[in-house]
Design a protein that fits this description.
Serine Threonine Protein Phosphatase 5, Tetratricopeptide repeat; Ankyrin_rpt-contain_sf; repeat; single chain; Ankyrin_rpt; ANK repeat; Ankyrin
Length: 116
């Protein structure tokens, strides 16, 4: 997750925490997708990061990507912000809940059901 590098970059106060790559992915989106809990925590702690950007080939939010890939700890962190759109639909019309269910991530499904 390159936590130390992210800390150094954030400390400069010269980076755009919501910068997007060619597919629309932001640092938060990629950290959530790949289950990098420590990096997600650092980015959320800035209180400047957009928690609902859509990016990647499926136009998913960080919550959708974390749910799709079964990253329960990341899903918990995102939900704790009380800012994520739990019903956001991706490019296929799927919600984070349906993505988690489709991929058999029971613990994430339970977590998302408890928030609705």
């Amino acid at each position: 997750g390159h936590e130390a590098v992210v800390k150094l970059l954030l400390a400069t106060n010269k980076i755009d925490v919501d910068s997007k790559d060619i597919s629309g992915g932001t640092p938060l989106l990629w950290a959530a997708k790949n289950g990098h809990k420590a990096v997600v925590k650092l980015l959320l702690a800035t209180n400047e990061v957009d928690v609902n950007p859509k990016g990647g080939h499926l136009h998913q939010t960080p919550l959708s990507w974390a749910a799709t890939n079964g990253h329960k700890a990341v899903v918990k962190l995102l939900l704790a912000t009380n800012k994520v759109d739990v019903d956001s639909k991706d490019g296929r019309g799927q919600t984070p809940l349906s993505c988690a269910a489709e991929n058999g991530h029971e613990a994430v499904v339970k977590l998302l059901l408890a928030t609705n």
